[in-house]
């Protein structure tokens, strides 16, 4: 099966940290950029961060810049989102997605705004930040 599976969500206190993982199966991530999205209760889904397929260039939404770090390990077909200094407003279902990027002429931050461009989606993992 071709799929992305997220893990690592849970309940954490404000100021705490979590690391989300996204494991791809049925295909290799080598030629795909990776995007993390999130959807908070009552809000639209938004792009959080992305990492390119080749040179490791990254993009972060202003709301998470300086607190979150995206990374990838192509050898293990896995992407990560390290989340530090978590705030209650970070509470959301977090999704990983991948899009074919070998022919891309723009950076992943541009494509991140286009949900229809994603080739594969995970089912999401819930992150709750609360005391």
Can you give keywords for this protein?
seven-stranded mixed beta sheet; single chain; 1 helix; 131 residues; 11 strands; mainly beta
Please work out how many helical segments DSSP would assign: 1
Derived structural class = mainly beta
| Major beta-sheet overview | 7 strands, mixed
> In sequence order, what are the helices and strands, one letter per element?
EEEEEEEEEHEE
What does this structure look like?
This protein has 131 residues and is mainly beta. It has one helix and eleven strands; from the N terminus they run βββββββββαββ. The longest helix is centred in the C-terminal third of the chain and has 4 residues, at 108-111. It is globular and about 45 Å long.
What secondary-structure arrangement, pairings included, does this model have?
Layout: E1 3-7, E2 10-12, E3 18-25, E4 32-39, E5 46-51, E6 58-60, E7 68-73, E8 78-83, E9 92-100, H1 108-111, E10 120-121, E11 125-129
Parallel strand pairs: 2-11
Antiparallel strand pairs: 1-3, 3-8, 4-5, 4-9, 5-6, 7-8, 9-10, 9-11
In short, what is this structure?
By secondary structure, this protein is mainly beta.
